Amino acid sequence: MKKIAITQRVQILSDINERRDALSQEWASLANTCGFLPILLPNSLQTVQQILQEIQIDGLMFSGGNDLVAYGGDAPERDEVEHFLIDYAVFRRVPLLGVCRGMQILLDHFHTPLQPVQNHVRVQHALDNGNTVNSFHGFGAVDCAPPLEVTCRCLDGVVEGVRHTDCPWIRGMMWHPERCNPMRQQDIAMIKELFEL
Q: Nearest 5°: CA angle at 52, between 46 and 54?
C-alpha cells in the first residue's frame, strides 16, 4: 500500500490561544478509495523533516484551506512546510498533488502571482476540457509561469489545473476531489496514475 503524506490546514482558536492542525475526514476516504495509506503531516518543519527521515513516503498531497501569507493568510508555518515539501518533491522525484490551496502554493512557489477571483466559492464550474468541477476558492490565476503549464481552465479563464513541465510527477488542481459524493472516477483514476509515476 502506497504511503501518501497529506498536509493539513491550520485552525486558529483565538478564545483559547491555540493553533491546531486539522484535516477533513474526507481526505482519509479519498486516500482509502485510491488504495493509499494516509500519513498526516503536522505544520512543523522540524517534525516533517524527521518524519521524512524515518518513513519512506510514496507521494504527497497538499490539502485545501488557509490563504497563503503573501495574500493575507495567517498560517506561516504551513507555508514554510509546503514550500519545503515542493523542493523535496522536485529533488527526490516524489509525486505531489496540490489541491486548491495546494495548487495555489505551487503557483506561488514557481513565481506565478495569484489574484482575487469572483464566483468561485461554493459553485460548480464547467472546464474547457468538458468536465464540471466544484469550486471553493477566492484566489486564482489566469496564467502560469514556467516551469508550470496549464492543463485546464474554467470557461471564465481562471486556471484550474497545472503540471510541472520538467517534473511531471508534480500537478495541481483547484477543485476538491475529496468533497465529491460519490467521488468522481476520473479524479480517482488521475490521482492513482500520478502516484504511479
A: 105
Q: Is the pTM of this model over 0.70?
A: yes
Q: DSSP string of 40-73? A: EPPS-HHHHHHHHHHS--SEEEE---S--GGGT-
Q: What is the pLDDT, as a whole number, of residue 183?
A: 86
Instruction: Say whether pLDDT at 45 is over 70.
Output: yes
Per-position b or e across 3-15, b if 16+ CB within 10 A of its CB: ebbbbbbbeeeee
CB 9 within 8 A of CB 23: yes
d(CA 15, CA 96) in angstroms, rounded, equals 35
Average pLDDT in the chain? 94
Residue matched to cell numbers 521524512:
52
**What is the per-residue pLDDT for 197?**
64
What average pLDDT does this structure show over 147-157?
Answer: 95
Choose among 127, 158, 163, 125: nearest CA to 142: 158
DSSP type of residue 185: H
Q: Which one-letter DSSP state was computed for residue 109? A: H
Residue 147: CA atoms inside 13 Å, Cβ hemisphere, count?
10
